[in-house]
Amino acid sequence: MRQFLLLTSLLLLFGGRQPDQNHLALQNGPPDQWVYQGIYVDHYPEMAGDVNKENDFLRWCQKYGFNVLTIYGIHQVLSSPRLSRALADFIHRAKTGYGIKQVSAVVTKAATVTGPIDAYDNDRANRQNRFDYTNLELEWWNNAADFGQYDSELEQMKNWGMKQSPAVPNEEYIGWFKNPAGEDSVMAASLVQHSSRILLHDYQQNFTFSYIQPRLEWIGKAARAQGKIMPVIIIFNAKPEFSAAYFSTHPFADAYQWVADAWHTADFPGKSNIQLIGFQLYNQSFARQCKP
Questions:
Q1: What is the per-residue pLDDT across 163-190, written as a single tens digit (0 to 9) for each?
Q2: What is residue 69's three-state secondary structure?
Q3: Residues 20, 65 contacting (CB under 8 angstroms)
Q4: What's the average model confidence in pLDDT over 201-223?
Q5: pLDDT tens for residues 227-240?
Q6: List of E strands, the chain
Q7: Residue 55 contacts residue 285 (beta carbons within 8 Å)
Q8: What digits encode the pLDDT tens for the residues 82-99?
Q9: Mean pLDDT, to the nearest integer, of 44-62?
């Protein structure tokens, strides 16, 4: 059995792999900090309140080492008192029985955070029932909004989170720095300023570090200008047109291991101001087809 060793907080590859959750490390982070291994929970409203379906999913997460849930369909769930109670029970069960460390709520606008999520979280004194992060998914690069609107939504979410006790940080998923073109540095600066961490997509069939390095560089340079170390999570996609074939024959964590190894040898401006904290997988439906 081959093993991985940590050296100065960077993961060096010596051979084969242990199970998914045992061979990863942060890049530019303390070696004793846990590594983020997240999964997008699509179709959650369809399983909400069905304890058998929920527990089957949570057992699958535990089997493959996932420790963060990023949940879709939150507005629909929080519109129903019954489903809201089911959500609270699901989150509590996930955190206390299945190794889930954080739960994030996906939204397309800040009003969902300042309205339904605010009411939900503040109705629950037990932190184990509540959201730990809010996640903005609004693809401005695909014309879902202009960047000014996007940045305003992100800032409102941050401001709400800072007023909570304890604070509820915000995050965002991003694809490309475009729409408009040529504003990469301005966009990166706004993302770094108005969020606590960034999820960066790496949707490829065959992984190449050059696919993500330019965007990492913009984020890193923006973080350096603001005197920050910006946590970044790499998103992989288990759809057939992206990485389904890879994940059908490799552990989920192998893709992040590949990025970590490439990160170790890469050299680009702003690298020292980025902390790779782990990976996110899109999504549970496609991932469970790769690995039932």
A1: 999 999 999 999 999 999 999 999 999 9
A2: strand
A3: yes
A4: 97
A5: 999 999 999 999 99
A6: 5-7, 10-12, 36-41, 68-71, 102-107, 133-136, 170-174, 197-201, 230-237, 274-282
A7: no
A8: 999 999 999 999 999 999
A9: 98
DSSP letter at 139 equals: -
Q: Which pLDDT score is estimated for 31?
A: 61
The SS3 assignment for 126 reads coil
Range of the domain at 21: 5-290
Rounded to 5 degrees, what angle do the CA atoms 198, 200, 202 make? 165
Query: Token digits for 200?
Result: 């960066």
Task: Output the six-digit token pair for 76.
Answer: 């629909």
Distance, in Å, from the CA atom of 54 to the CA atom of 195, rounded to the nearest integer, reads 30
Average pLDDT (252-277) is: 97
Q: Is the dihedral of CA 28, 65, 208, 286 positive or negative?
A: negative
Counting the structural domains of the chain, the total is 1
- Cβ pair 155, 113 in contact under 8 A: no
Q: Please return the burial class of 18, using the count of CB atoms within 10 Å of its CB with bins 0-12, 13-18 and 19+.
A: middle
Pairing of strands 10-12, 5-7: antiparallel
pLDDT cut 90: percent of the chain above it:
88
Give the pairing type, strands 36-41 and 102-107. unpaired
- Spatial distance between the Cα atoms of 205 and 190, rounded to a whole number of angstroms: 30
Q: Which pLDDT belongs to residue 10?
A: 34
CATH of the domain at 230: 3.20.20.70
Q: Tokens in use for 181?
A: 């073109």
**Beta bridge mates, 12:** 5
Q: Enter the pTM of the model.
A: 0.91
